[in-house]
Amino acid sequence: MSTPSCNPSDLLARYIAHWRLRPEGPPFYTAAGALQPVRWRSEPAMLKIALNDDEARGNRLMAWWNGGQAARVFGQHGAALLMERLGPPLTASMSIETDEQCCLTLCRTACGLHSQAAAPQAGLLPDLLPLADWCRDLLDAATTHDLAVRQAAALAATLLAETRDEVVLHGDLHHGNLLHVAAGGWLAIDPKGLWGERGFDYANLFCNPDYELVSAPGRFERLLVLVTESAQLERHRLLCWIASWAGLSSVWFGRDGGDGHCARFVLETSLRLLAGGTGR
Known about the structure:
By secondary structure, the protein is of the alpha+beta class. Helices cover 43% and strands 16% of the residues. The protein has ten helices and eleven strands. Strands 1, 2, 3, 4, 5 and 6 form a six-stranded antiparallel beta sheet that branches. Strands 7-11-8 form a three-stranded mixed beta sheet. A hairpin with a 5-residue loop joins strand 9 (178-180) and strand 10 (186-188).
């Protein structure tokens, strides 16, 4: 699907009329979407307009999941998604829940999402993006970036050549993409709609939620033990996925600007552990 050519505000108005919604707050915008809190029948809902292909693919995956470990979806049409309105993200609870508890919540969510769809069903998900395509910017950086990124590219190439445990992937699972449910618990939003090895979905939590916590002494090593045990992943292979994800993020930050300090710290830490043999 092509990126919508209409003005995002016009698209919001179009789908408010299409679903007979009642706005319950002003719209807000990100680089990838236009959103507005609305009321659908008696339900508080969120209307989201995807502004690029990745978000549009994610909207369709949300509609396919339609609950479970993800937010419920009331409607999906074209670039638009109408889903249940949830509470604040996991980051807002970190003064109450420990870093380890948040990490376990993310692991449980990833496991639940993966078990909702062990394989794409014919006709339902024709446009999942292969993980190799998602990592293309990293693979293409193998000869143009510094040594750490080139090492990450080599690790990614090896992993992708020997993929295991392939599932439908969220693709961007982190503290900001888990929202609180009023009745308790957490639900995922904003997937990218990928297909590949399940270990990939656990890598991004090491780069979040902020640099102070990401770079705290011993934090990476503690989470590495926690994730490998909780998700039943091979430690060395998870480290390779973490390095690959952090390398890809570093390439994107270098291209688009922004703060790449978390990704760089995680990249260098994971490579150091792999080189020292402590990733086994």
